[in-house]
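Board notes (copied after class):
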Amino acid sequence: MEIFLISVSFLLLMALGVPIGTSLGIAAVATIWTFDLGIGMLGVNFSSGIASFPLLAIPFFVLAGVILEKAGLAATIAHFFELLVGKAVGGLATVAVLTCMFWGALSGSGPATTAAVGLILLTPMVKHGYDKNFAGALIANSSDLSIIIPPSIAFIIYGNITGVSVSALFVAGIIPGILTGIATMIVAYLISRRRGYHGVQRRGSLGEILTALRKSFWAILTPVIILGGIYAGIFTPTEAAVVAVFYSLFVAVFVYHSIGWRDMIFILVDASVTSSVIMFIVVFAGIFTWAASVIGVIDGAANFIVRISPNAATMIILVNLLLLALGMILDAISISYLVMPILIPVLAALKIDPLWYGVIFISALAIGQATPPVGVNLFTAANLTRSSIDAVAKQAIPFVLVDVLVLIILSLLPQLSLYLPVVSGLYKP
């Protein structure tokens, strides 16, 4: 009866269009109240859900990303890549992917990257003959890399749930993120060659390229400082987030002179709203997970998965299919809190490395950001192109397929995820 109440109430609220965080909270509170599981635990779980040192990194990374966005650094990076590729086949498509990769390393958020890069590159892509829905789909899909390439909010959430080192997760995401970006560029090039899409009118001269590199140098240096500090053991991911904020302020105010202190009130408001939405989901997803654990849902589901999955390969395939399906209707944070507590004992039982699986898990969730009907990146891109989400989603199909191919490769070759963390000494399998 308890399992029926918590699951049906959650699904019913979702079907009625209630926001995911609210649906999780209402379903959990209703279950706790109805079956007297200890209503006094709500306050304890609410507090413990956000009183986590790793989670402190989220609002700081969000703030750093907003500062850099308001400073216009995405445009600086995009201009550098435009001069570099010139009129090559699919030149602006390549610029879009590369800009999303670099901007994802600054924001850690797919929708934020879609918005920032889309506002800069959609107009020039359409001006040079690119189909607007193709351009929107490419940027939406490339922005998926924001939760794979560090620093990633999704990795922070995964580490907080599983206890896996966030530093190791950040480093583990580098090779898979680059691999996914390269695969996306290959598909974009093939489509561009068939349709006759090109870049800008000419390649920049060496002087122009070096000037653009100098202007974008400080922006490009941001992920280097963050990851380099973590890699060298100078600071933790949470401390790195604070460093990113101060570095972003320094670059925006004193180097580029693109924002003033009066702009900070708007920057703080934007960052606060984004962080509040994330933490709202985190808190109520945590309460939902606790209630589900108390009534036996998590143990029962874990045992069921172990019974139907005789080996690690079968489990990974089945869960990947589940994640791809859930990604069509839920956001990455909610899926993490709903699924990972169930999978933790399964990973232990099947002796699956949790760091390796973390990369697979987040890569699968990244695909969901560009799949309808609830692909947050697609919605953002559709708003920018003023098209229907179906029109943009249709153009995204080739990119989603290549992302699935990369997911399969990551699932077959754990070395791609584990090599850098092991070599750096951040992780010992």
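Comment from the instructor: Residues 302 and 342 are 5 Å apart (CA to CA). The chain has a mean pLDDT of 84.
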